[in-house]
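User: Hello! I'm new to structural biology and keep hearing that structure can be predicted from sequence alone. Could you demonstrate with Leucine dehydrogenase? Please show me the input and the output so I can see what each looks like.

Assistant: Of course. The first part below is the input, the amino acid sequence of Leucine dehydrogenase. The second part is the output, the predicted structure written as tokens.
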Amino acid sequence: MQVDVLNANELKKSAPVFGQLSFNDHEQVVFCNDKDTGLKAIIGIHNTVLGPALGGTRMWNYSSEWEALNDVLRLSRGMTYKSAITGLNLGGGKAVIIGDAKTQKTPELMKSFGRFVDSLSGKYITAEDVGMETADMDTVREVTKYVTGISEDKGGAGNPSPITAYGVFMGLKASAKHKFGSDDLEGKSVLVQGIGHVGETLVEHLTQDGAKVYISDINEERLEAVRDKYGAIIFEGSDVYGAEVDIYAPCALGATINDETVKRIKAKVIAGAANNQLADELTHGKILRERGIVYAPDFLINAGGIINVYAELENYDRKEIMRKTENIYNTTLEILSKADKDDMTSHFAALKIAQQRIDDRKNQNLK
Ligand code: NAD
């Protein structure tokens, strides 16, 4: 048996966990290690004031453990605000599994992860995220009840992506109303970047509403399929960000609004599904505002998925899921008006309202 000797000097030199940039008063971070199955996972519990920390599990081939930690810290914080702004009684959490979902995911690994989730006794409830399928959640369900997003025949709410897309559509229409004075998308040009599970359904809603839809993706086959199905136009330019369109809908990866792109964007409205779209939420949100670009906060308009899985916990039906998701329209209008009135970025306006709800509940609990 080999025993690693801890080098105290080395530890002092490294950045302490609580000092990490993305560490934002997280309540608990759990490192899960299981040699037998090869599981290396991190569960981030950001805040549980409003309820149990619910958030998906992402399996990704991170280039380092620090990158994985950073991701889970950022994503779990995002979940706190997403649930708070949506009015759900849920806290914020997220999990990451380090590894390649295509080659390293096994039922044993998923069950091992599920047992770690179970050991938290419901403080964290998991769901699917990038690299996960409904079937994986069904496997996790075999060892813990603290999982949502399981298949419909096992009592779950099924695939959340169509609901997420509908919520994004609602937020996009509200943003159009705020910017252009009408939410009628007839003749408006929209560029959807990433036409995966969410992006494709968004394209469907947009084309049905009469928008001129441009699509961009790294997957050529999908581009052709979505073009043929909905009559969308494949974006042929070399610079997606500089595209002359009315609305840009980021539905691929996060941080696409960054130092490189923020000044190139020609769209007048940004509304999409991707999480953490602003690489730096202070700087880039401010530049968008100064440039007169209306930005729909991602964590507000992509909440359809969490509304869908929340139904599994609260036992509400499809009608209520759609009603709650439709309400994203009103909340977006409210946030965008507040941002103008208080002269702040829309992202910050949304964060403020969400934080207020958490603080109110905390004060109530203390009474
Ligand atoms: P997905 O993996 O099904 O689709 C992503 C698409 O983006 C793929 O078609 C991929 O080829 C494409 N893509 C990747 N890199 C690209 C690039 N550089 N340029 C253009 N296209 C690129 O994912 P999804 O479930 O549709 O989710 C999309 C985004 O929305 C993700 O950021 C996700 O975190 C977020 N989100 C999804 C849900 C949900 O319910 N699925 C909920 C909330 C947030």
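User: So the tokens describe the shape?

Assistant: Right, they're a compact way of writing down the 3D structure. Reading them back into a model, for example: The chain is about 45% helix and 15% strand.
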